[in-house]
Amino acid sequence: MCGIVGAIAQRDVAQILIEGLRRLEYRGYDSAGLAVVSEPGRLNRIRRLGKVQSLSDAILAPLPGGLGIAHTRWATHGEPSERNAHPHESSGNIAVVHNGIIENYAELKEELAAEGYQFTSDTDTEVIAHLVHRERQSQDNLLNAVRAIIPRLRGAYGTVIIDAEQPETMVVARSGSPLVIGVGIGENFVASDSLALLPVTRQFIYLEEGDIAQISRSDIYIEDASGNQVDRPAQESTASYDAGNKGEYRHFMLKEIYDQPQAVRNALESRLADDHVLEQAFGTQASEIFAEVKHVQIVACGTSYHSAMVARYWLESLAGISCSVEIASEYRYRKPVVLPGSLLVTISQSGETADTLAALRMARHLGYLATLAICNVGASSLVRESDLAFMTRAGVEIGVASTKAFTTQLVGLAILVLSLGQHNNINPLLLAEMVGALKTLPDELEQTLTLAADIEKLAEEFADKHHTLFLGRGDQYPIAMEGALKLKEISYIHAEAYAAGELKHGPLALIDDDMPIVVIAPNNELLEKLKSNVEEVRARGGILYVFADKDAQFESDESMRVINLPHTHPWMAPVVYTLPLQLLSYYVAIIKGTDVDQPRNLAKSVTVE
Ligand code: G6P
């Protein structure tokens, strides 16, 4: 995931830029760069492949200059390399950093090349630099030049542009990729995430979609998408960010549960247009490959396997593409038959899980169309060895029991499903509806977290139990599996998940008044079927704990406790209903006094077989 930092100050800004990049590094990157204006007309650019530390090491002497921009890149257009790293320049004066994807870059590139502009990278971003440079020849300042080129850009961008000939300002524009202005005293900053700027300011102005701003040391001018000047008040941040610090939270797991609305926002950033998804998020060749996909095989372990199982329901019902899902440790030792046009998808938080990696390596010789990794760690082996990759941007996950890695995987899979649907005649109205459902998801997750106190109370009823059953149907069956896994992992209570329709084929025999049964009941097409399953349990004296949509009309009584969740689009319900189950496990573990963040016998990343 790319990160942007910019600064304009009386002091030299290079070290502020480097520190900002370091704080964004966890989001995934393959290269980094900065450009500083050391004197009017003189742009100093340094870029390096690899970590921010390599960039920092490359600055051998103090780099003077009070205006600068910097970037950590996660490659989409063009391989990770120094020449593709940002900032991109035009004619030695204009420098640009950009997050997002310019969809019509090929057409713009052709136009600019025909006019003699030389391209020195394979990125989509470079067109912005040349467009601004061309416009700057006829416009009297940088702001006007940026205003003039914005209507030419299609796709998503958060961009910061400087002009060495005009070192008293930088210009920023936001559409689909967030940007925040950090307000200092006699100096100002900009970044893709406020945490990059916490060492220099606590005052932030969050730009809105379509905003363009001109920032100088003492002034911030903002105009909205219609070109009207707007006053966006600064807000004081109380955040304390440190990836290795759990802040106000008692455990990393709890912090990571609460990180989810923001993690999902990050996962969605620059990947959605108004009514479709930007499939370039999977890589430059994604479009070409996706057009050929007839079947998807997903391979993963643990929690990542559960997200794969949800995706199977989605792929077949929404994209009309058949899908098989398998645990990596099984798949790697089979002799699978690969159908023509099959895409192999691996899912992994760490990208280093031995079985998943071995499955990928084994499968490479089986005739798959291509391989795609959905992963949280940009520099991981899984990502490096796959043809395509989608970074989930969950941020560093420290708790062994995976939480935000899972929900952001679901987001990545949802975007994959819609991308494949776009090549397989998905109804445009349905597509737009699903994009809308993704956009409202972070707010729904925030509302769901307000149920924590109710769930904490509920946990008391589980703490002395030895077994628990989790029930779901359809795409909630894998969520029941994930809920059971969480409870097992951190509270050591034996938990099993069943597809509710399967109850009568065995597990009903287990039910008595000492067996809590957790039911996941969003308001979807299987609700009536699920209600019948609930009655089967009730008739045998089981105690039910039902997580339901208000409209599902479950009422609490002596044999049933109901927790109502906010309304959500049924498609996104698997993501939303995961959160109360994570909280339930967490609070049960707290009562039992187990080691929540490092449960016995388990490891975060299983790099051995
Ligand atoms: C371990 C972790 C799980 C994780 C699984 C797969 O078992 O404890 O939380 O789901 O590995 O890891 P991956 O990094 O491949 O998602």
From TrEMBL:
GO cellular component, one term: cytosol
Compartments in which it is found: Cytoplasm
Main subcellular location of this protein, as a coarse class: cytoplasm
Enzyme class: transferase
EC number, as in UniProt: 2.6.1.16
Pfam families recorded: GATase_6, SIS
CDD domains, alphabetized: GFAT (cd00714), SIS_GlmS_GlmD_1 (cd05008), SIS_GlmS_GlmD_2 (cd05009)
One Gene Ontology term of the molecular function aspect: carbohydrate derivative binding
InterPro entries: GATase_2_dom, GFAT, GFAT_N, GlmS/AgaS_SIS, GlmS/FrlB_SIS, Ntn_hydrolases_N, SIS_dom, SIS_dom_sf
Magnesium found in the keyword field: no
Xref: PROSITE patterns: GATASE_TYPE_2, SIS
This protein's UniProt keywords: Aminotransferase, Cytoplasm, Glutamine amidotransferase, Repeat, Transferase
Reaction(s) catalysed (UniProt annotation): D-fructose 6-phosphate + L-glutamine = D-glucosamine 6-phosphate + L-glutamate
Domain SIS: 286-426, 458-599
UniProt function note: Catalyzes the first step in hexosamine metabolism, converting fructose-6P into glucosamine-6P using glutamine as a nitrogen source.
Quaternary context: Homodimer.
Protein name, as recorded: Glutamine--fructose-6-phosphate aminotransferase [isomerizing]
Organism name: Gilvimarinus xylanilyticus
Gene name for this UniProt entry: glmS
